[in-house]
Design a protein that fits this description.
mainly alpha, Rossmann fold, three-stranded parallel β-sheet, two-stranded parallel sheet
């Protein structure tokens, strides 16, 4: 089975359909993925970029819960692989629930999973009771 790496623009064109020709090509690719003819990998950095583009006020300005609703079906596809699919799904939850930047939500999800502390000057981490976040001394 082929394994391909997906770039940000494939997911953006699929979701937004702002370029009909590219959206159709992306949709055909996703049909192959759904059918199991192709396995695809989305790197965490690319996934974070997808969220960044969709939430950007200068670009698509989508609400966080809408982004979650659009991306979760993609994340849940059997033939879509991630570094850690559970952490990406959890990050989408944290992103919406605590109104975090997705990048912060992703490292919070990894901190939860690994039971690691986060050192940061960002106070948003304090919202999440399941992690320990503190400033360096």
């Amino acid at each position: 089975m082929n394994c391909v790496i997906l770039d940000t623009n494939i997911i953006i064109r699929l979701i937004t359909a702002d370029d009909k020709i590219k959206q159709e090509k992306a949709a055909l690719l996703f049909e192959k993925i759904k059918e199991g003819r192709i396995t695809a990998f989305i790197h965490d950095v690319i996934f974070a970029e997808i969220v960044f583009v969709l939430v950007s006020k200068k670009l698509y300005n989508l609400q966080k819960n809408k982004i979650q609703a659009l991306l979760l079906p993609i994340v849940n596809l059997t033939n879509i692989k991630f570094n850690n699919k559970k952490s990406v799904k959890r990050a989408l939850d944290l992103f919406v629930k605590y109104d975090l930047d997705f990048e912060d939500a992703l490292i919070a999800a990894y901190a939860e999973k690994s039971k690691s502390e986060i050192f940061s000057f960002d106070r948003d981490f304090k919202k999440i009771s399941s992690i320990i976040a503190k400033e360096p001394k």
